[in-house]
UniProtKB/TrEMBL annotation:
Record-linked InterPro entries: EF-hand_STIM1/2 (IPR057835), EF_hand_dom (IPR002048), SAM (IPR001660), SAM/pointed_sf (IPR013761), STIM1/2 (IPR037608)
Domain SAM: 123-181
Segment forming the signal sequence: 1-31
Residues forming coiled coils: none
Segments forming domain EF-hand: 52-87
Protein name, entry field: SAM domain-containing protein
Record organism: Diploscapter pachys
Main location: membrane
Keyword annotations from UniProtKB, A to Z: Calcium, Calcium transport, Coiled coil, Glycoprotein, Ion transport, Membrane, Metal-binding, Phosphoprotein, Signal, Transmembrane, Transmembrane helix, Transport
Gene Ontology BP annotations: intracellular calcium ion homeostasis; regulation of transport; store-operated calcium entry
Membrane topology: Single-pass type I membrane protein
A family per Pfam: SAM_2
Length: 303
């Protein structure tokens, strides 16, 4: 009876756990929020939301459009980079291609759409502060930028030839600093930001790959050389082994020959001794015979 009660209790506890887990799962499923609809803002709508930014882009376009045709051609872009931005010739070709792409005539709307879709426009206040510190090299204005919450959307206003915004809002009194900030902002707005840290990383990665390739080639050569040396050493060891076997065989033959010669010499000495003994025996026998004859003759004479 007790066993049955214990079994029932265990079963009830397990069932209760399963029920609680099921309820929690259903509650979680019901409590899930409905996915929010993403609101797509078009460049035309953004013109209204960011009127100051669009105005600044229009002003920059007007500065670059020398013939006032309503579009910027490649010649005007090159002239603007060379005269207004004082850009080096080595950078002009790359940045002209980045600005125009396959479009030889850039209108205001083209320039605005390109800026609207750029990642630099979405820079946060911290990213702008980092750019101001590490790229523009004007750390004295970082706190002011953060205080006014200057983000990526403000870059066209910094790139304008009219520097009222920098003087009145940012309180930048130095004309040298304003010009430096304007040129860097223009570079970002027109051509995009080129992260030099990534470039350094790319260079470091390329150097690492070159060094790795060199080490791999060196390792392969060393392995090949080591393999050849092992083969040569193995061949030499085999030759030494063969020479050792030949030496041992020759030594064995020499020992056998020496043993044979020793036995022969010992046998020769025994035969000489036997011959000497035979001679001595014969001499003794001869003397005995002579002595016996002499004794008989003497006895005979006495009788």
């Amino acid at each position: 009876m007790k066993l049955e009660m214990l079994t029932i209790r265990r079963f009830s506890t397990s069932s209760l756990k399963i029920l609680l887990i099921s309820l929690l799962f259903l509650n979680g499923c019901l409590a899930k929020e409905k996915p929010k609809r993403s609101v797509i803002v078009t460049p035309d709508e953004e013109k209204v939301r960011d009127a100051e930014g669009y105005k600044a882009i229009s002003e920059i376009h007007r500065e670059m459009d020398d013939d006032h045709s309503g579009s910027i051609d490649r010649k005007e872009t090159t002239g603007f980079m060379m005269e207004d931005m004082q850009m080096r010739q080595s950078d002009r070709a790359r940045k002209e291609q980045a600005f125009h792409g396959n479009d030889d005539a850039i209108t205001i709307d083209d320039l605005w759409e390109a800026w609207f879709e750029s990642k630099e426009r979405a820079w946060s206040v911290e990213e702008i502060a980092e750019w101001l510190l590490n790229v523009v090299n004007l750390p004295m204005y970082v706190d002011k930028f953060k205080e006014l919450k200057i983000d990526g959307a403000y870059l066209p206003r910094l790139a304008m030839q009219n520097q009222t915004f920098m003087v009145n809002k940012l309180d930048i009194r130095s004309s040298v600093h304003r010009q430096k900030l304007r040129l860097n902002a223009l570079d970002v707005v027109l051509f995009g930001h080129r992260d030099h840290s990534n470039r350094i990383k790319d260079i470091a990665l390329a150097l690492s790959l070159v060094l790795l390739s060199a080490f791999i080639l060196l390792y392969i050569r060393l392995q090949k050389k080591s393999s050849q040396e092992k083969q040569e050493l193995s061949s030499r060891l085999m030759q030494l082994k063969s020479m050792e076997d030949e030496f041992q065989h020759a030594q064995k033959n020499w020992n056998e020959e020496r043993s044979k010669r020793s036995n022969s010499e010992e046998t020769g000495i025994s035969q000489i001794e036997v011959e000497n003994l035979k001679i001595q025996l014969e001499e003794a026998e001869r003397r005995h015979v002579l002595n016996h004859s002499f004794f008989i003759n003497t006895v005979s004479l006495r009788n």
